[in-house]
Amino acid sequence: MRIRIDKWLLVVAVIALSTLSWWMPLEPGPVANLVTGPEKRHIADFYVTGFDLTAMNEVGRPRYHLQGEGLHHYADDDTSQVQRPQLTVYRLGATPWVVSAGQAQVAAAGESVLLQDEVKVARLTEDRRDKLEIDTSVLRVVPDKKYAETDQPVTIVTDLGVTRAIGMQADLKQEHLHLLAQVRGDYVKQ
Known about the structure:
Elements: H1 2-23, E1 44-56, E2 62-74, E3 79-83, E4 86-91, E5 94-100, E6 103-106, E7 113-123, E8 132-142, E9 147-158, E10 161-171, E11 176-187
Antiparallel strand pairs: 1-2, 2-3, 2-4, 3-6, 4-5, 5-7, 6-7, 7-8, 8-9, 9-10, 10-11
């Protein structure tokens, strides 16, 4: 009889251990934390509506001014999405440039701004003479370098006429525009 009881105890112990080994991974605990590092998700950590921001240089003069209807900041990559932005790039002793668009993405630390949806660039002058306006669909601006570029079609309107091209590099400080391809112009005789 003793052999029979030992056999039954052995069978019950094996069944209990196998059931326990199946059930343990289902328990929450340290096994659930096997993922290394925090999960990164692109979710806004704060937002602002109707904002107005001016960045200053070392001597306290405005470098650029950014305003918009709304701004969402994302902590995972330190970028910001701006709705209806207007970016003013100031130049020492010269009229500023104003860039507006439907939306923009500002890179970390404001190093560059990617503007999209009906981008308009204008050089402001007090008497509206020497007008210069640029229209495109996408424009990347580096405010500190006063540089802008696009590989999309551009239309440039001045007092002299209209110029169209594909792609542009612009030195906003020196007012130098380099048109990249398929340049065509219609000019008014003065």
